[in-house]
Design brief:
Number of helices: 4
Distance between the termini: 38 Å
Shape: elongated
Oligomer: single chain
Order of helices and strands: HHHH
Radius of gyration: 19 Å
Organism: Brotaphodocola catenula
Protein name: Transposase
């Protein structure tokens, strides 16, 4: 029973499924499958891609947090560069910002 309670707590807290509401048996099965696929992907990725090997010993929650931070950062820089391109016509500035955005992608 304790394992079930712990799993439920982690799903709601760390995986942000607290607002995911299901009423049917099929919906519950889909939720459980989604959670399991997400968890497995986070466990396998550090072994499939050397770039993420530093996360092999970390918890899935820590890895998920780090990955989401990197994704947010990339999205921010992409939107920032697009906005700059439409408002600033300086080629040197646009080139520098694109290089910065590319560097951020490689650091993830």
């Amino acid at each position: 029973r304790w394992n079930i309670e712990t799993s439920y707590y982690e799903q709601k807290t760390f995986w942000s499924f607290c607002n995911y509401m299901v009423r049917s048996c099929k919906g519950i099965e889909m939720l459980v499958n989604l959670i399991n696929i997400s968890y497995c992907a986070m466990k396998i990725l550090p072994y499939q891609n050397e770039h993420f090997s530093q996360y092999r010993t970390k918890s899935v929650q820590e890895f998920r947090f780090e990955l989401s931070q990197g994704i947010r950062s990339q999205i921010f820089f992409t939107i920032f560069v697009k906005n700059i391109e439409t408002h600033i016509k300086s080629n040197a500035m646009i080139k520098a910002l694109k290089q910065l955005a590319c560097q951020r992608v490689y650091h993830l």
